[in-house]
Structure formats: C-alpha cells, structure tokens
TrEMBL record:
It is a peripheral membrane protein. It is found in: Cell membrane. The keyword Lipid metabolism does not apply. It comes from Virgibacillus kekensis. Its main location: membrane. Signal peptide: none annotated. InterPro entries: AAA+_ATPase (IPR003593), ABC_Ni/Peptide_Import (IPR050388), ABC_transporter-like_ATP-bd (IPR003439), ABC_transporter-like_CS (IPR017871), Oligopep_ABC_C (IPR013563), P-loop_NTPase (IPR027417). NCBIfam families: oligo_HPY. Residues 5-256 form the ABC transporter domain. GO terms for molecular function: ATP binding. This is ABC transporter ATP-binding protein.
C-alpha cells in the first residue's frame, strides 16, 4: 500500500447554539508515503477540522465524527478511543499549530518538554532522552543546544519557539506530520527557514506531511499535491502543477486570482465576491454556487461529483460533467 493515510467519506459536525454545523461534509483524501500534501482554502472551509479529526483533536463533545474512515496503516482512527489515540498522538502522528505558545508549557524547560514524549513513547532513560533533546534542538537549527535545553519558552523568540515545537513533533520520528499554518505567525525570513527545515525532514526521512495553509507560495515551495477545500468539501485535488497551471474548479480559479472575469484586483480570495456557505444550513448543491460566475441551475440543485481530469487530478464541478449544462438536471442525476 502506497498510502500512509486514507480518509474516506468523512463527515464531522459541531453542536452549537445554532444547531448542527456540518463542518466537514464527505471528505476523501489520500496521503502517500513520503509526500507533502497541501490543503488550501479560506477559513471555515473545513481544512483544520479535517486535519484535527485525524488526531481526534477537535473539541469534544461538541465535535463528532458522524461517519467516515480515517485509515492509518490499515487501522481506522475514527473508531479509536481517547486511550487508544494516546499511542498515536505525538508518536505515529504529530501536529504543529500556528501559534507555538499554545503547544508549549510556559512552566517547563524546553528540554523537559522534548524529553516527555521520548520517555513516554520510546521508553528512553532520562539521560538518553536528554541527549536526544540536545540532538533535536541541533537538528532544528537552535544554537547552543546544551544551554538552551535548560531554558524556558519565554527565553526563546517566536521563530525559535516554533523550531522547538517542530523538535517536539519530530522527537518520536512520526510517520505523519500535520502542520496547520506553521509559519503564519512568523516573519518572512524565519518562515523560509522553518519551511526549509520541514522540507529537509520530508526528503531525508520518511515523514509524510499534511500542510494546511492559505499561502500559495508556501504550497509551491513545499508540496507535491494540493487539495482545495470549500464549504466543508474537497472541491479539487491535483499535483502542484495541475492546480497551479491547469485548475479546473472555478473556486480554484478564484483562489489563484486567475478568473478571467476578475481583472480588477489580484490579491487572491479578496477577488471572489460573496461569503462562504452557512454550514449550519449548507446548500444542497455545489457549495460554491452562490459565488460562482458560471453557476447553472443544476449547480444549486445537485451536488457535483468528483470527476477525473487526469490520473492525479479530480474536480467536483458541473462544468466538467458532460450531462451539464442543462437547464434541468437530466433524469439520471435526479436524486
Ligand atoms: Fe460553479 Fe456550478 Fe462548478 Fe459549482 S458546479 S463551481 S456553481 S459551475
Ligand atoms: Mg484554521
């Protein structure tokens, strides 16, 4: 099996005062061994919820996986209990968040925080774990690691803290690293260094990466494949080249600001007028229909299926379907 992770028909909902919010609505994603897959889309598209589902890190009990599979090496993590997840989190699969302070304990030395996972998951002795902590700090490019392990998070700069978070995430050689906007809070120079670091780890080790970002420059630099999410669904998947040079979904066009009708401004999402769908009351058809300049009648009434564009690219849009455009959906697709 070539895939380290396979998400099938994942549905995740949140219970809120406004009722059930269907944050993720039937997501299919595959992560190949050793690849970096980027998930892009604006906030509320379901990218963070999808990735947190893998680790069961969405807030309980408000969030629940309604249906679907999250297959990791043949095991379905969607069915794992909290207890079972402990053997996965930080060991087999690690996650890096946008703000390093939220994942660091301010009252504990950096060294202790790195050692925790090593002692817990790798059964390392204390001295051995301490040595490994120094090695890891070196690996992520923190100078004077011997001294640094004894210091506390507040003694580190933002960029250094994110390196520490990455060191912790990598401590147990995870098979999958999920990075949710890992460089958003950092300045451009540090951002480039962190990305370089992640790239090296991916090419040297056999770590597969899921990278969640809204920064297409980061995608081009880091990923081999891209999944575009909108309204709780994956609307297009392809290689980086396919998504950048031959995108097929109007939302992806908007995302890349290459929509032919929108010549006014060139700053990405701002060029798509309108707002994302309300997932407390999601549209029954294409989630992008309300903002799509190409929307047809069929779009608002029926959900488009993913159609193969190439061996590596699919998109869910009626424009690709030979049964459209039709003013009325043909009999075969009425549900
Ligand atoms: Fe636009 Fe219709 Fe395609 Fe949705 S299915 S992106 S509304 S053309
Ligand atoms: Mg997010």
């Amino acid at each position: 099996e070539n895939n380290i992770l396979e998400i099938n028909n994942l549905h995740v909902s949140f219970d809120t005062f406004n009722g059930e919010v269907k944050a993720v609505r039937g997501v299919d994603l595959k992560l190949k061994k050793g690849e970096a897959l980027a998930i892009v889309g604006e906030s509320g598209s379901g990218k963070s919820v999808t990735s947190k589902s893998i680790m069961q890190l969405n807030p309980k009990p408000a969030a629940r996986i309604k249906t679907g599979e999250i297959k990791f090496e043949g095991k379905d993590l969607a069915k794992y209990t909290d207890k079972q997840m402990e053997s996965i989190r930080g060991k087999e699969i690690s996650m890096i968040f946008q703000d390093p302070m939220t994942s660091l304990n301010p009252t504990m030395t950096i060294g202790k925080q790195i050692m925790e996972g090593l002692i817990k998951h790798q059964n390392m002795a204390k001295t051995q774990a301490k040595q490994r902590a120094v090695e890891l700090l070196n690996l992520v490019g923190i100078p004077n690691a011997e001294t640094r392990v004894k210091q506390y998070p507040h003694q580190f700069s933002g960029g250094m803290r994110q390196r520490v978070v990455i060191a912790i995430a990598l401590a147990c050689n995870p098979k999958v690293l999920i990075a949710d906007e890992p460089t958003t809070a950092l300045d451009v120079t540090i951002q480039a260094q962190i990305l370089e670091l992640m790239k090296n780890l991916q090419s040297e080790g056999d770590t597969s990466i899921i990278l969640i970002t809204h920064d297409l420059g980061v995608v081009a630099n880091m990923a081999q494949r891209v999944a575009v999410m909108y309204g709780g669904k994956v609307v297009e998947v392809g290689t980086v080249d396919e998504i950048f040079y031959q995108p097929k979904h109007p939302y992806t066009w908007g995302l890349l600001s290459s929509m032919p009708r929108l010549h006014e401004k060139q700053d990405g999402l701002a060029t798509i007028p309108g707002t994302p769908p309300d997932l407390a009351d999601p549209p029954k058809g294409c989630p992008f229909a309300a903002r799509c300049p190409y929307a047809m009648k069929v779009c608002t009434e029926h959900m488009p299926e993913h159609l193969e564009v190439s061996d590596t690219q699919t998109a869910a849009c009626w424009l690709l379907d030979e049964r459209a455009p039709e003013t009325e959906p043909p009999e075969t697709i009425k549900s």
